[in-house]
Structures are given as C-alpha cells and as structure tokens.
Specification:
The complex is a heterodimer of chains A (319) and B (241). By secondary structure, chain A is of the alpha+beta class. Chain A folds into 2 domains: 174 residues, no CATH class; 124 residues, Cyclophilin-like (Cyclophilin). Helices cover 15% and strands 33% of the residues of chain A. Chain A has 5 helices and 19 strands. Chain A is elongated. Chain B is of the alpha+beta class and 241 residues long. Chain B folds into 2 domains: 76 residues, 2-Layer Sandwich (Gyrase A, domain 2); 151 residues, Cyclophilin (Beta Barrel), CATH 2.40.100. Chain B is built from 5 helices and 14 strands. A 5-stranded mixed β-sheet of chain B has the order 7-6-13-5-14. A 4-stranded antiparallel β-sheet of chain B has the order 1-2-4-3, with helices on one face. In chain B, helix 1 crosses helix 2 and helix 3 packs across helix 4. Chain B starts with 5 loop residues before the first strand and ends with a strand. Classes of the chains: A alpha+beta (319), B alpha+beta (241). Chains A and B meet through strand 15, strand 18 and helix 5 of A and strand 2, strand 3 and strand 4 of B.
Chain lengths: 319, 241
C-alpha cells in the first residue's frame, strides 16, 4: 500500500532519498550509500513510528519546500535547519502532526549540515537491491537515481499507528547527539598503520585537520600536518568501509563516507568509529577536527551502548 | 613490521590477510576462504569482500566482539588447509574486436609494433583471473594479460565509454560494467551485461572466476545482444582444471 504524501515545490540544495544503505553487495563492487548520519535517520524514523530502516529524505543545508498531500506525522532528525510548517516551528527530534496542503520549509541552518525528514509509513520509492538509497554517481536508487526535483511526487507507506498516537514523541535528553562539541574524532588504527613513520603517526593523532572545500557524500579531504609514509602510499586495491581514513602520497588524509567506492588503493591509517560518524556528517568545509586513538574493544562497547539506546527507543515507540 | 593476519577496520569489520602481492595461489586460498564463509553461515556476519590479498569481513559488533569474530575466523583459516577447493569456473566472454567497437585497437597495435590481428589474437588467447570486483558495480580487476600488448591509458579520458567495452590500461585489461567516463584503450566490446540490478545475482562475475575471450563478428554481436536483451542468452562456462 502506497499513496502520494509529498509534493516537491522547491528541491533545496541537495535532497535525496536515503535509508540504511545498500549493504550486502560490496563484493560485486556495489556502493553502499545510505544516510551520511546513520543515527539521525534511524532515530527520526523511530520517532515517526517507522522501522529504523525505512527511507527518509536527506536534506542538505538549504532545505526544500515540500507540500503534504495528506494528513501525516513527520519527525526531523540531525541538523537544525530551522524547519517550519506554515509558520509553525518544527524542532528536531520530535514527531509532529501535519495537515494536507500544509507546506514544510527550511530556513537558516542553526546547527549541523544534514537533516533527515522521516514520514509516518516511510518513503516508498522503488527499492533496488533491497534499498531505496540514492547513489547519485551511478544513478541508482531513490527516484531515477537522482536528487529530488521540483514537481516530484513522493509516495508514502501506511503509518505504523493512528496519527494522533504517533505525534508528540521526543528523543530523550541523554540520546540527543551533541553536534557542537564534536571536534574529537575517534579512530581504530589499521589495517595499514605499519605504512607510516612514527613521526607521521604522531602528526596524525596530535595535529588539527581542517575539512577542505572538497567534502561531499563520498568523502572529506582534509588539510593539516603531513602524515608521512615510510615508503609508499599506494597499496593493491583493497576493501574500505564507512569512516576509513586513507592517506595518499600527499600525506593529507581523506575520510571515506556514505558514497565511497567499495575498494581503494591508498594506505589506510585507521577507521572512524561508528558512533562518531554522525559528528562528521554534520560538519562543513572549514570545520576542524582532531583524531584520537581508541581500541576496537572500547569502540565496540560504545557501539553496543548506542544500539541498546536505539532499541529502547523502538520499544518505547511500540516498534 | 610484519603484518597481522587479522586487523580491525573500525568497529564493524575485520581484514583477514592471505599474504602479499598478486598471485594465483593467494587468490585460490581467498576463493576457498570465501567458500568456507558462505558455508559456515556465522551469526553476525553481514557480508565480505575478497581483494587481491585479503578478505574483509563486515559484522555486527552486537553479535560478535572483535576477539570472538577473529577466533571463529581463525578456525576457518585453519580449516582451509585441509579443505579441498571446488574447481574455479571460467566465463567465456564473446567480444567483437571490430570497427566502432574497437576505436583504440590500431593505437594499441602501433604502440607495440604489432598488427591489429596480432593484438586481437594475443588478447583473446589469454587466460584471465578476476582478483576482485569494484571501480563500478561488476567491474572485474583481471590479471593475466600478455605484457606485449600493454598500452598506457589515453591522455585525455573519454567522457563516455559504453558498457561492455573491453579495454587495456597499462598491463591490465578490463570490461566496463556501466556507461561511464574512462581512459582505457578500447579494443572491443561484449554484448554481455556485466551488471543488472534486476538479476538475482546482479554481477555476471565473481572474484576468483577465470575469463577467456571469444572473438565474434559484428553480426554475431548483434545476434547475441538480442538474445541477452530477451533474457535468452546462456552464458558459457567451463570448469578450470
């Protein structure tokens, strides 16, 4: 069951359909994609009464103008891009009822870069290999593999409960991500940490890196102290994952993100831990970060804590 | 520093190393390990990707801690020594090396001081091994091309290379799986579809497959293309001894 729920009046800077990503096909070279801020899309879905894997809209900086074609419940997670519906402010991390013909618009970005708009019942574009995520470079998923255009009509699924029961849910304070305080990005070293000189490794973990202008869904190029290689920067093409930090011969790190290719040929000094990916997703050119070493054991403990919190949220929401 | 057999790639993936350098022996063990992984169905494993020298296993840290997943993978690794590998398969790829399908064939011939017939004969005579898939969905990274037809990439890449184009870049040969920009020297085209998201298995190839090329005429190309489009073409396979 699917019916029109949203009409795009203005597409905004870059608005795409994303979900948890097209995992399971990386061995065939199929890019995972999915939301840049995996926590925000999952939490927004749960607040709207959806399974966390439903598709939502990823809204980037300058948001779109969207008209609702029926009464529904929405929840926005991630960045605060000053959303409002017919003049009513819509704060992030809260599910609210919206009426047919009302218009959602966005204003000045207050914090973060990417907001996720979840709609009760989810966005029902045509799935491709088990996912609705849009991968722009290969024109896969979403609507014809592209960003939203003016005039697009998005279909939605059936809400998980009567709308009045879904509205008014909020994210508990202890689950709210702190996008402002996130300058420290934790990294599990490896698999190519052997490829760097002691000085290079020291520079990486003690220096300050700035996000250059070259930042997009595929990855972020950084600029800062040179991470020196012992010998060479190239390796035989090998697997990478979300958050993998590559260092090419320039010594300037690159963080691979949602639209990364499935493999790469540069030395990998480490991988950003899952719980810190949302911080990166909400940063823009010019932001500065510092890397900090963390053990895989500690990173997994943080991962499990986050999953527990999301599970609690799902239970509380009756999902 | 000696490299570890297991190294974490963040909190949700682990890289299992099988050695150094491009070799058929390493590729064979990687293919065997992937086969064991498939059979073992270990809880918490989401997927894995073979490469030239490693298999990277993606897993759910809620199901398995790092120490637990490496212990189970270590067990599979040991089992690999005593497991007889199933034979690899060879995919026969029909290629038309003529006319508009082969815009760079003459350049490749000139670069190497050969005739175009010689280039085709050397290229189709090879036994190629797919070490990994990537770059674009279903694109095979293949080894085994004769160095005597090696040719550098185009200085200015084309903005559009049709899917199915067979190219040479340095000592590598490959087949474009999607219409993309690209700088490989194009010497032919196959009517086979390497990647189709609507197929049960979207990729024609798997890492560890062998490939050999069969030269076809333009007429045969059109004929096979029609069969492929109608879903009637049966891809030819052989067992590799």
């Amino acid at each position: 069951m699917s019916e029109p729920v949203i009409q795009v009046e203005k597409p905004g800077l870059l608005t795409t359909i994303q979900d948890a990503g097209r995992a399971g096909y990386q061995q065939y070279g199929i890019v995972v994609s999915g939301a840049m801020d995996p926590f925000a899309v999952r939490a927004a879905n749960l607040l709207a009464g959806n399974k966390e894997t439903e598709a939502a809209l990823e809204v980037t900086m300058m948001g779109p103008k969207l008209k609702f074609l029926k009464d529904t419940v929405i929840a926005i997670g991630g960045a605060d891009l000053s959303a409002s519906v017919d003049g009513r402010e819509i704060p992030p991390w809260k599910s609210v009822l919206v009426k047919k013909d009302e218009v959602l618009s966005f204003g000045v970005p207050k914090s973060g870069v990417r907001a996720y708009l979840a709609v009760a019942g989810g966005i029902n574009s045509e799935p491709l290999l088990g996912s609705r995520s849009t991968y722009l470079k290969a024109g896969m998923g979403g609507i014809e593999g592209r960003e939203l255009y003016k005039g697009d009509i998005l279909e939605g699924g059936v809400p998980g409960a009567p709308l009045k029961n879904l509205a008014g849910r909020v994210l508990k304070a202890d689950m709210l991500p702190d996008y402002q305080g996130g300058r420290r990005i934790r990294v599990v070293p490896g698999p190519d940490d052997w490829a760097f000189t002691d000085e290079g490794t020291e520079a990486f973990y003690s220096g300050e890196y700035e996000l250059t202008r070259d930042v997009d869904r595929m990855g972020y190029r950084l600029s800062g102290p040179v991470v020196e290689h012992k010998d060479k920067a190239d390796i035989l093409s090998d697997a990478v994952t979300m958050g993998t930090v590559q260092v090419p011969s320039s010594g300037q790190p690159i963080i691979l993100l949602a639209d990364r290719q499935t493999s790469g040929g540069y030395t990998r000094i480490g991988t950003v831990i899952s719980v810190d990916l949302p911080l990166l997703a909400q940063m823009h050119s010019g932001s500065t970060i510092m890397f900090e070493r963390i053990s895989v054991e500690k990173a997994q403990e943080l991962y499990r804590n986050r999953e527990k919190a999301l599970k609690k949220l799902a239970l509380a929401a009756g999902i | 520093m000696e490299k570890q057999r297991f190294s974490p790639m963040g909190d949700s993936a682990v890289r299992v190393s099988f050695g150094e350098g491009i070799s058929k022996e390493i590729n064979n063990r990687i293919r065997g390990f992937a086969e064991l992984l498939r059979k073992a169905g270990i809880k918490g494993i989401r997927e894995w990707t073979p490469s030239y020298t490693a298999v990277t296993v993606y897993y759910d840290p809620c199901e398995k801690k790092y120490s637990e997943i490496t212990a189970e993978l270590e067990e599979l690794y040991r089992k690999l020594e005593e497991t007889e590998l199933p034979p690899a398969k060879r995919v026969i790829v029909p290629v038309c090396y003529e006319g508009e399908f082969a815009p760079d064939l003459e350049d490749v011939a000139n670069h190497n001081g050969l005739s175009t017939d010689e280039v085709v004969s050397i290229h189709k005579g090879g036994d190629y091994l797919i070490y990994m898939l990537g770059f674009t969905p279903g694109f095979p990274y293949m080894g085994g091309m004769a160095p005597k037809i090696a040719t550098p990439r185009l200085e200015v890449p084309r903005s559009h290379v049709p899917a199915g184009s067979v190219g040479i870049a340095g000592e590598q040969t490959g087949i474009y799986s999607l219409d993309t920009p690209g700088g490989w020297r194009i010497i032919g085209r196959t009517p086979l579809v390497l990647y189709d998201s609507k197929r049960e298995n979207p990729s024609l190839f798997e890492a560890g497959d062998h490939v050999s090329f069969r030269a076809i005429s333009t007429e045969e190309y059109e004929d096979i293309k029609k069969q492929v489009e109608a879903g009637e073409y049966e891809v030819e396979y052989e067992t590799v001894d």
